[in-house]
Design goal:
By secondary structure, this protein is of the alpha+beta class. The protein has a single domain, classed as STM4215-like (2-Layer Sandwich). It is built from two helices and seven strands, in the order βαβββαβββ. It has a seven-stranded mixed beta sheet. A hairpin with a 7-residue loop joins strand 5 and strand 6. The longest helix is centred in the first third of the chain and has 20 residues. The two termini are 25 Å apart.
């Protein structure tokens, strides 16, 4: 028996999968992770050992699809944090990612076999597209910035899902 995920989790996993495949096809030694990175005690004194692109679904907003209808139009806020090793690399990764997310990508329904949370089955079921861009900026920390955050960049954008139906 398969355990299927909710749409919001599928949006996050589909976005991570898309970004991961784009990074793997075009960059070397860049790590793509889900969520915010767990950073050790040396955060204040060292840069990341290799660039990190962290992707997460930050929030979901729902509104009525139309007046008098119970169907919802869901929007999902995706946040990408880039932890680079230099300012140029930060700019290059941000530009690359912006170029990739401007076009729609595949929405997958995800499931895993009961008792096996490590391997996921993916079934294409529509597209995800950016509805609006929220942020594309360097993260400046003025109160005692830690070295790990020195070349940090944030991209945030709202996406919507369109189904194949």
């Amino acid at each position: 028996m398969a355990n299927y995920f909710q749409t919001n989790r599928d949006v996050e996993l589909s976005t991570i999968y898309y970004i991961e495949t784009q990074i793997d096809d075009n960059w070397s030694e860049v790590e793509v992770i889900k969520g915010f990175p767990e950073i050790g005690a040396d955060r204040a004194t060292s840069l990341p050992s290799r660039p990190i692109v962290s992707v997460r679904l930050s929030s979901q907003d729902s509104d009525r699809f139309e007046l008098g209808n119970t169907r919802l139009r869901n929007e999902y806020l995706i946040t990408i944090d880039i932890f680079a090793r230099s300012d140029g690399q930060r700019l290059d990764l941000a530009g690359f990612l912006l170029d990739k997310i401007k076009d729609p990508w595949t929405y997958y329904e995800h499931a895993h076999a009961s008792g096996d949370p490590e391997s996921l089955d993916r079934t294409a079921d529509g597209k995800i597209r950016v509805d609006r861009f929220i942020s594309n900026a360097k993260v400046d920390i003025f109160d005692s910035p830690e070295k790990f955050d020195k070349f940090r960049h944030i991209l945030s954008f709202v996406v919507v899902r369109s189904s194949l139906q």
